[in-house]
Specification:
alpha+beta; M1 Pyruvate Kinase, Domain 3; 8-stranded mixed sheet; 6 helices
Length: 212
């Protein structure tokens, strides 16, 4: 498991479909050592703190396995520079399908805990200039991983990701994403109960699942 690219970006305002949208989804790779603080990376910001940022969305990771799948889905798209999905950390060998809610990883001198999947918003539509991208992203369930920063540190491209502490659950990031983004079924009742009991899942997501 490896960190391939560290990506940062500042908010900018984009005209899209007649609307002015302020977003920080446009991330670019940076070289050298980057400080990772409790709320974000040095040189990075979130545009709308009502739904982005905060300790439970301090840093977002997306794996190259997803890039490969998206290349097949979006053959007309040509720019696959890391950071395309708004992720801070582009990884290799860390697909969210094997990451459980609560897993703790070391990267560089930082320690991170996986706490939730991404729930896509309309900024993905803007990024890909595709009004259907949010729906496709949710439907295909390649959510990526939001981490909470347990110990700030320094990270850089090439650092290894190491699993330091395995969570005491089988609920992975995509399983929770599916529970959040699809219509609930009776067959999922036990999974929802398990998810609500997870100690490291953010309280807002627990309330959402409980309400469902």
């Amino acid at each position: 498991m490896q960190l391939l690219s560290v990506n940062v970006g500042l908010p900018r305002t984009i005209e899209w479909h007649g609307r002015a949208i302020t977003t920080a989804i446009f991330k670019q790779p940076v070289t050298g050592s980057v400080a990772l603080a409790p709320l974000n990376l040095a040189g990075d910001q979130q545009a709308d703190l009502r739904v982005h940022g905060g300790p439970d969305k301090a840093v977002y990771a997306y794996d190259m396995a997803h890039y490969a799948a998206w290349r097949a889905e979006l053959p007309a798209w040509t720019d696959w520079t890391p950071g395309l999905f708004g992720e801070n950390l582009t990884t290799e060998g860390l697909p969210d399908a094997v990451v459980r809610i609560g897993d703790v990883f070391g990267v560089g001198t930082a320690r991170l805990r996986a706490v939730q999947p991404r729930q896509p918003c309309h900024k993905l539509n803007l990024r890909f200039d595709d009004p259907g991208m949010v729906h496709r992203f949710a439907q295909l369930n390649r959510p990526g991983i939001y981490f909470r920063v347990l110990e700030p540190g320094i990270v850089r491209a090439g650092d290894a990701f190491e699993l330091l502490e395995a969570a005491a659950t089988d609920l992975t990031i995509p399983v929770v994403a599916r529970l959040l983004l699809t219509q609930p079924t009776p067959a999922d009742a036990d999974l929802r109960t398990q998810a609500v009991a997870l100690p490291h899942l953010p309280e807002g997501l627990k309330r959402h699942l409980f309400g469902r």
